[in-house]
Every structure is written in structure tokens, then in C-alpha cells.
Specification:
three-stranded antiparallel β-sheet; binds zinc ion; eight-stranded mixed β-sheet; mainly beta
Length: 161
């Protein structure tokens, strides 16, 4: 996420985003994000208030993939956390915020994180919701670093930084 370069924060999914009538989303349905080995898991009982992908170099290296999926929830949506994580805390110079990244000490999966720019939120790695009903992201940031072969859905908001 690029907060200091301040693209307008994307609207929350509940603001004007229509949902498919044949796939009603139950706001209260809990969803669990789990690390690759299953040792650590975090459950939320609401939809993300911000949900996008980031093409920055840091996200590529963190995930080993072409982009990171960041699902931000209000901290109040967290219902349970099981297992344990270790913390990698650093100052993200390019985005000018402090980040506390929680990863599984057994398998290394980054499961969730906190950023100083969003004190009320928890960021959860979208891919860790595999097999859960996490909706489609709505935006992409750091588009300037997007791999040339990645094509984005046309209805997403795209921010260059
Ligand atoms: Zn693990
Ligand atoms: Zn990133």
C-alpha cells in the first residue's frame, strides 16, 4: 500500500459496490486465514474495509509471487487467533510507515501485519484465506511495478504508486 503518496483511499466494499445477487455475502460469516502449515490462524467476522493488491518489490519478495493481496479489516473484526507468530518490524521507507509483520515461525508464511498509517486496521494476507469466501479485491497500487504479464480486471481502481 502506498499511503504517503496518497491515492485516495479506496471506498469500502459496502459503499456503492453492488454484489452478485446469486452470491449473497453474509457480513457476519466468519472467515479464517491460515498459514501454510496450519499452526497459526486468525478469524474475522466481517468483510475487509479495504482490499487490494500491491505490485511493489517488497510485496513480491514477501510473497514470492507477482503481487501481494492485502485485506484490511477493522481490528474489532478479529474474533479468534490461534497459534503463534514472530514479528518482523521495520520502517518501510518507500511508504513512510512503520510495519509490524507477523509470520509463522514454522513455515514462514506472513499471515498478518499492522501499519502505523492505519492504526485501527489489521492487514491480513489475502492468499491465506484460501478456500474461504474472501471477495474479489477492488483496487491495485504500485501499478508502475506491475509485471507486464499481469492483467487486472477493468473494474478495479488502479493507482500508479
Ligand atoms: Zn505455519
Ligand atoms: Zn507492496
Amino acid at each position: 500500500m502506498s499511503f504517503t503518496l496518497s491515492p485516495p483511499l479506496p471506498p469500502s466494499p459496502s459503499e456503492g459496490k453492488e454484489q452478485s445477487p446469486d452470491q449473497p455475502i453474509d457480513e457476519s460469516q466468519p472467515m479464517t486465514a491460515t498459514c501454510a502449515c496450519g499452526q497459526a490462524a486468525i478469524t474475522v467476522n466481517a468483510l475487509p474495509t479495504m482490499h487490494g493488491v500491491c505490485h511493489c518489490t517488497n510485496c513480491k519478495r514477501r510473497t514470492g509471487s507477482a503481487f501481494g493481496i492485502s485485506a484490511y479489516f477493522d481490528k474489532t473484526a478479529i474474533t479468534t487467533f490461534t497459534g503463534q507468530t514472530q514479528v518482523y518490524a521495520f520502517h518501510h521507507a518507500a511508504q513512510n510507515h512503520d510495519q509490524e509483520r507477523h509470520f509463522c515461525p514454522h513455515c514462514g508464511t506472513t499471515l498478518f501485519w499492522y501499519v502505523s498509517a492505519l492504526p485501527e486496521k489489521i492487514g491480513i494476507a489475502g492468499g491465506c484465506f484460501a478456500d474461504e469466501a474472501l471477495p474479489e479485491p477492488t483496487y491495485a497500487v504500485t501499478d508502475g511495478k506491475r509485471e507486464a504479464w499481469v492483467r487486472l480486471p477493468r473494474n478495479w481502481q488502479v493507482f500508479p504508486n
